[in-house]
Amino acid sequence: MDRNGDSAPDEGCPRGTLPFDVFSKECPSRGTLEHITGRWGSLTLGALYEGSLRFNALRRRVDGVSEKMLSQTLHALERDGLVHREAQPTNPPRVDYELTPLGRQVAEQLLGLIHLVQGRMSEVLVARGQYDEARAGRP
Known about the structure:
Layout: H1 28-37, H2 39-49, E1 53-54, H3 55-61, H4 67-79, E2 83-88, E3 94-99, H5 101-119, H6 121-134
Antiparallel strand pairs: 1-3, 2-3
């Protein structure tokens, strides 16, 4: 375990045929999956798929994220090798964020899911309405 409580990178998760098994609570892939699929991680990766962005532009694109949460999200995604941070030695400093090749591959998969959900939202809203109506008045 490292100082963040994550398993060392060379430790596998023995339950499956792959060296890592996200269903194992000890597997470091679980933390990476959480970084990717969390609300801010998936939106950040999706936004960066469009191209390199500076911090404030990224914050505007990912509407609703706080500066602190975006900073933490970018740090986690950079640590996982999904985002590259490029600091320019200018005054004031300029910092750009972009996807790594791995980050780009992950974002492509996420965008497929995002587009599926967006395209089927009318069905989701109908299902929600039916669910809520059927349970109206229940505790």
